[in-house]
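Appendix C reproduces, verbatim, an entry submitted by the partner laboratory led by Prof. M.T., so that reviewers can inspect both the input and the predicted structure.
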Amino acid sequence: MLEVEKAISLATDKNIFPIIDKVLEGKRLSFEDGVKLFKTDDILTLGYLANYVTEKKNGKYAYFVINRQINPTNVCVLDCKFCAFAQMDKNDPKAYEMTYDQILEKAKYAVENGATEVHIVGGLHPEWNFERYLNIVSIIKKNFPHLHIKAFTAVEIDYFSQLSGLSYEEVLLKLKEAGLGSLPGGGAEIFSPNVRRIIAPKKIGYKKYLEIHKTAHRLGLHSTTTMLYGHVETYEDRVDHMIKIREAQDETGGFTCFIPLAYQPENNDLPVYDFTTGIDDLKTIAVSRLMLDNIDHIKAYWVMIGEKTAQVALNFGADDMDGTVMEEKIAHFAGAQSPTQQQKEKLIRLIKEAGKIPVERDTLYNPIKIYDV
């Protein structure tokens, strides 16, 4: 195979030679393989292999969506050490609570600017009941019936279950009836219990996280899934996280995309003070693509790694740049140095300059428009 010869000719790390063969033969990688890929200094061969897999799955296409984030409140009962967004005291000057009218105004602005999706996540407000969150979905859907509502992480679904006394399935069915289209992947962080005890001791563990997503998939709802990296976790923790997601995807097939999220180090209580490096970002995306053989899309989330690294990542295993976002708050509260929103034309240019074909998509990766040469 020409691909094998080219990969071997590029490779400088003999430890990954057997992995090259496995990738090009379409074989599933092991935990040990994933750790070796993270530890290699042969970044160009790693990128080549990841891009090879990406183009086998999706050709030269690289996707983006016209979307908007809406964060109804930052008042939250949790105290995650890495989070600079949440406020435990609603009387804190930084705390806020949106009214239904304010939420509708943001949805209206999104639709007027071509959005096909709103992405709704926020704090676990101690005084809001499940009906309040349910109403947020229903009023948006009633006013903008064609807008896809991607809302509420698994952490929020678990909270709604506690508030209402309903099972996960019952909570999800009520949200689906109100107009929920899919779930975002936030709240995964790192699945390692030891790491979670440090960074998010009050947050649900990985078993509940995966149970909620698998339940959603069985009800016909798709979701994305994430991994927060670059804080106190190890390479082994990252690979273990990916394998657990891969196993869940083997069961239900409901994950549309995997999103590595680079830790943002400012304005929080975690004693980690450096941003991730470009090499670590590219490695993490490439290893994700190689390990998660059963998930079609890997996202280079420009909000957290910056436009330039995200652009390069399109040749290191990523095939999606998220979208316009419109007013991102959570990462920027923690020091993200990217813009708070992105222009459609800029995304198209970034993708084209990376040698890929831009595809405007909907939430479930159905193409809306292909911007071919």
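The chain has 16 helices and eleven strands. Additional entries are available on request from the coordinating office.
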